[in-house]
Amino acid sequence: MKTYSDIYFLGIGGIGMSAIARYYRFKGYRVAGYDRTPSPLTAELEAEGIEVHYEDDPSRIPADAESTIVVYTPAIPSDLQEYQFVTNHGYRVIKRSRMLGEIAQGQTCLAVAGTHGKTTTSTLVAHILTESGEGCSAFLGGISKNYGTNLLMSAKPVMVAEADEFDRSFLQLHPDIAAITAMDADHLDIYGDLEHYQQAFRDFAAQVSRVLILKKGLPISAKDTPAKIYSYSYDDTGADFHAENISIDALGHCSYDLHWPGGVIAGIRVGTLGALNVENSVAAAAVCLCHGTAPAAVKAAVGSYLGAQRRLDEHVNAPGLTYIDDYAHHPEELAAAIRSIRGMFPGRRITAIFQPHLYTRTRDFAAEFAKALSGVDKLILLDIYPAREDPIPGVTSEIIFKDVTAPEKLLITKEELMPLLKKEPVDVLVTFGAGNIDRFVEPIAKMLSERI
């Protein structure tokens, strides 16, 4: 068997890639990599001693192919010179998802999949296990606000993973316990249609060995998995795990009683905002209770959970002035987040800033985006963030904008955003998107904090 000393990453700045890079650095490997642009995450990697560069330069790759594994994300272009070099010069080259699957082997794996909700839910599962004293290693799709990282490490052979359906990545995992939060159409550039997309989730379910926790109503049945199935819901009393006696305080935090097959856990207060996070906390609690975590430990950890960055992320929350940032980039996510914010702050004026992510997603769901965004009082719509894609003729933010029926709407470039906001009256402001809109979060929060 070969012995590897170097792990090299193509696309090291991605949220999933950086967690694996940190893992191997912790394990004592030499770790380095390429990314297209510097970011706060790559700056953190560099501060931790991981060498990162931003030019497509094959000479930066470790020279010894025999001792080097190259990990890549499907988001990199196939004509990247470094990718071409390693595939043609005898390196072991594997996808990020395959590497995560290899790390999971020999561990008890708890995974969370779903079109949306998976980052918040998996991060909360990891927090519950950590706070309970059991501990876990966790590979997260966001930065945990409790720990300031997307990687948790433990000597305990228990692993929590966000199971990403993009490029069928989650089929590299064989979890002991898994939750599926949603199966709304997405990534149709890969799957083609909803049926193939949902079949991938059924294929994932077939790989779960012990317990599968499903959002009530999802199209997966006992014939699709060897695991025991439980359902969960926000407040549907027909679900195995559900909330009752839900209340919300003046700053948007909910409390509830969790009903589950083992009884009732009364008076859970959710540390994160809104009804949406009640549902996510029910799913996370279900995973941990099925794993054997004590009910009292679950209750305490749900209350102390601060969330993941960019998931209904509370930056300013004072009477009459609130700013929230959220990663939502799919119509169902947007609609759910807007409903949740309406529930948190009834009667208040909501202004949303949205940056569409990907030309293909904008093309495939323009009508659905317009419908979801019509639920705010004022929409500020930015240009499309292309990520890995080339422009598609005729696909611009205008195809969403024209059908939005919100009382007020503006279509602007991101360069126009900060000058506009300096003059904008704000009650509840929320930024949405998976692109580089996150670069505006800190300046917006600073500007609004000065108004308090």
3D structure, described in words:
By secondary structure, the chain is of the alpha/beta class. It folds into 3 domains: about 5-95, 3-Layer(aba) Sandwich (Rossmann fold), CATH 3.40.50.720; about 105-305, UDP-N-acetylmuramoyl-L-alanine:D-glutamate ligase (3-Layer(aba) Sandwich), CATH 3.40.1190.10; about 315-450, Mur ligase, C-terminal domain (Protein-Tyrosine Phosphatase, Chain A). Helices cover about 30% and strands about 25% of the residues. It has helices spanning about 15-25, 40-45, 80-90, 95-105, 120-130, 190, 195-205, 275-290, 295-305, 330-345, 360-375, 400, 415-425, 440-450, and strands at about 5-10, 30-35, 50-55, 70, 90-95, 110-115, 135-145, 150, 160-165, 175-180, 210-215, 230-235, 240-250, 255-260, 265-275, 315-320, 320-325, 350-355, 380, 410, 430. Strands 8-7-9-6-10-11-12-13-14-15 form a 10-stranded mixed β-sheet, sandwiched between helices. Helix 5 crosses helix 9 (about 295-305), helix 8 (about 275-290) packs antiparallel against helix 9 (about 295-305) and helix 10 (about 330-345) runs parallel beside helix 11 (about 360-375). The radius of gyration is 22 Å and the shape is globular. It starts with 5 loop residues before the first strand and ends with a helix. The model has no long low-confidence stretch (mean pLDDT about 95).
